[in-house]
Amino acid sequence: MSQGLRRKFLAGIAAGVALAPWLIASDARAQAAAKTTITFAGVTFSEAGRGDKLRAWVDKFNKSQDKIEVQSVGLPFATFANTMFTQMGGGGGPDLIRFDTIDFYAAVPAGRLLPFDDYIKDADYKFSAPNDYLKSNGKRYGMAFEISNYVMMYNPALLKDGKVPATFDELLAVTKAATGNGIFGYAYRATMAERNGFWQDLCNFVFGFGGRWGDGTNLTLNSPKVVEGIAAYKRMYESGAIPKGADAATYRRMFWESKVAIEVDNGGVAGIFNQQAPNLAFMAAPSPFPTRAQGLILAPLTVNANTKNKDAAFTFIKWALQPDNQKELQDLLGASSVATAVPRSAEDLAKKPWLKVYDDQTANAVPQLVQGFEVRTPELQQIIIEQVLKVLQGGMDPQKAMDEAQELGLAKMKK
Known about the structure:
alpha/beta, D-Maltodextrin-Binding Protein, domain 2, nine-stranded mixed beta sheet, 11 strands
């Protein structure tokens, strides 16, 4: 400090308050300059309702820190994975990334993610069972940011005679009866532009009809139960009860505007409906398929291997795993669960009875992966979706389409 500035400083002290504003501003600038800024990217930040609440949750971390600041980045679901892999492949990308499981399984073998083990010890936390899917070769590469089951959501006011379908044939009949005058009975995805979401909806049909894409050792893309599920997907597509071509953002908005009667969707979406249309008296029931099996959204929070701020990234993860912060995260996510077991309050269950329907589905939840070929799921997903589009849009027989998918998949696995 110069002699002149020192004299002013001492004079300020003598005056009592003369330099207080200068000192405060200088100190604030010094603290801001000393902060490490990291980025956290996730689809959830771009969602209506939940996005703003999640940003506020992240800001709670920022307010608790004087050396780290997390900046949230929201991107649409349809382009998120491609954007992340492009950036990471170029040596960049966000420090923290909320992936979907299928993309997580592609990122780990590609060396895109950092293992947690040097920072996070499983013994220190009560991780729920789905977190085990986030390990590879004994190492943890993520924590469950969101665990979300699928069930059937419906608007009782739009169902003729209040009939709630319990079988697939009843679903077809009820949704057809509800369709008309600008209202659709059902909605799902069926375009390549929504490939990942299409895959999620397709898995629910296939799993619900008892099919699996693999048996742990072999591909089973053309097995009878898989074909049965795809044939059911085709029947719904041709029923006239769905808004063909609508993306998820559109038909989900239509649901909370009482223009769609039924959809099978995940707990995070139920939370969005509750926030966006609090007066909408929607309800939930198990999906009306032959078996209770449905897909599982397991969205891990991961650390980019390119990050230059490992300590800061894992400081945030440790904060996120604290019990109070886990509870707040679970509350804002809706009917989803988080990395550690957080019980629902009696008050929440009374206000939102659909929470229990989602929670009860956990025992029947199946990851939306090709069992035994998890790492190769993105490649196989592309093949399967292309073949199913031939069924939906080209009129191909489901069995023939999936026989071709099996051949293409086997050839791909040999490469």
